[in-house]
Please model this.
Amino acid sequence: MTTEPGMALQTRKKPETFYPDSDGQPMGETPRHVRTILDSYDVLDYWFRDQADVFVAANMFLYYVRGDRHKHVFVVKGIPKIKVPERRSYRLWEEGKSPSAVLEITSTTTWDEDHEDKFLLYQDVLQVGEYFLFDPYSENLKTGLAGYRLVRGKYQEIKAVQGRLPSKMLELHLENDHDYLRFFNPATRQYLQTSREARKEMERLKNELKKYRR
Model:
């Protein structure tokens, strides 16, 4: 290859690897699955709102090696909540930390993957501190909820306390309340509200206040 005098050789820039942030698939299989995902993210994101080193995500691709990805609700402690540029996917080799806790909203079609493949992935490869499975229809889990905690490199089932599964990572208790996933604060002995529930409660209080003003 020859060049004209004064012209420098130009090397072709290696294209950057493309990491999709969407697969075009619905967030959940049913409205109940979608609501559980959204409500879980809503509650956990607000719960950790004042902790700048806790990142909460839902329905976001987590790439643990280049090309392999998964979606779920997850919480990572020890990384910045806000990143510039904004995260559109979670890339483990860039962040340097695996999720502290993962919540899978499982279904009949994903059960084998969630209960077997992802179980081993989170335990052996990513070493996720806690792994929770919630089955909104109790089709594969009789209680609708299961949890596991990493102890010396292996998952041990989390035993229920008064019908709830305590999470050390979240500092909350998880409960299946008639096929609805609730988060319970053991310190205040109260359930955490979604923003929708909080608005409903505010409307109730406003109506009560109107009665007293009459």
Summary: Helices lie at 31-47, 92-95, 111-125, 195-213. The chain has one domain: 31-213. The first strand starts at residue 54 and ends at 65.
